[in-house]
Amino acid sequence: MKRVPLGSTGVDVSQLCLGTMMFGDRTDEAEAGRIVDLALGSGVDFFDTAAVYAGGKTEEILGRLLKGRRDRVFLATKVNVGNGSEYPAQIAASLEASLQRLQTDRVDLFLLHWARADMDPPAIMAELAKVVRAGKARFIGCCNFPAWTFAHFNAVATSIGAPKLINNQLPYNLIERGIEVEILPQAVAEKIAITCYRPLMAGVLAGKYIPGQPAPADARATTDERIPKWLAENAGGVTHLLNLAKAKGVPPSHVAIAWLKSRVGVTCPIIGVSKLAQLQDAIAAFSLELTADEQQALAASFATEVKEVSQFYGPLRRSYSLLKK
Ligand SMILES: NC(=O)c1ccc[n+]([C@@H]2O[C@H](COP(=O)([O-])OP(=O)(O)OC[C@H]3O[C@@H](n4cnc5c(N)ncnc54)[C@H](OP(=O)(O)O)[C@@H]3O)[C@@H](O)[C@H]2O)c1
Hints:
Blueprint (H helix, E strand, L loop, with lengths): L2 E3 L6 E3 L2 E3 L9 H13 L4 E3 L8 H9 L8 E6 L7 H16 L4 E6 L8 H13 L3 E7 L3 H14 L4 E7 L11 H8 L2 E5 L28 H8 L1 H14 L3 H10 L6 E5 L3 H10 L6 H11 L10 H4 L9
Parallel strand pairs: 3-4, 3-10, 4-5, 5-6, 6-7, 7-8, 8-9, 9-10
Antiparallel strand pairs: 1-2
Helix pairs in contact: 2-3, 3-4, 4-5, 8-9, 8-11, 9-10
The protein binds NADP nicotinamide-adenine-dinucleotide phosphate.
The site of NADP nicotinamide-adenine-dinucleotide phosphate (NAP) has 28 residues, from strand 10 and helix 10.
């Protein structure tokens, strides 16, 4: 597995980040164990989890599975709150509970799970600084932060002498392309690590669902009502994806992952699997390269680029060349 620099940290991680959200949910501990073994055996050492997954069960499973081999993993977890004003009080307590469930004394990356209303950046960055200085989190970051909010938090960090956020974790795939506006150019300019969740749009880009046909009985679509809607809205793109994959002799998931990993500014796709075979499949996908023409035609078939009327300002929001190199 290829290794990539994690933003400005000086640390390299596997380009495939293993998402564990299904552990303790659709994936039982035995299968999760096989997934973790395969990941470690294949050079995948970047694992993503969160306090909130399966009400804490995901972290507990991971803690048991990583016993004796914690040091082989670059481990990320997250703190989640309902309202931003709760972050300062929750940061240390949530991390402490995560460390207990994960059976470790530190995480490598500690993330604010969502940008929420009523956040107080100086108070939040001061609390994050405490957990870094106590050695309980090596690096800090966030998920789902708008570009300006990320920049604002880091400006506050600099002004109070606190460590900066090094990572923004966001949804990005052929259907959800919002981060192409400002977030990816910001990431390149500022060396922010961008980790992308939902690379297969919960299976819609995996060839798991065929437009116009019923979903397989054991799929996430049986419990996630967004999936049939995403499929119906993107039937043209999904059909193009299925045809391109067939022409190349690879599964559709390989094509979707290959497109995502080659985007400028993307550090790691976060691969969420519920079965061992899905991780085997994803690992193989990281060897696939699409031509520039294939990438362009594929993206065009989805027509999901954020639309802007302004022919001058719109491109500026996607430009990588506004600053002198
Ligand atoms: N920070 C955040 O707010 C946030 C939000 C969501 C997720 N995440 C992170 O991102 C990770 C990935 O998210 P995600 O699970 O939504 O990713 P995803 O890539 O959109 O969906 C994964 C699902 O796709 C299906 N799949 C995967 N590989 C397949 C294959 N080879 N063939 C057929 N189907 C396949 C499986 O569905 P079935 O289970 O139906 O088989 C699997 O559960 C999570 O584990 C979590 O770590 C973060």
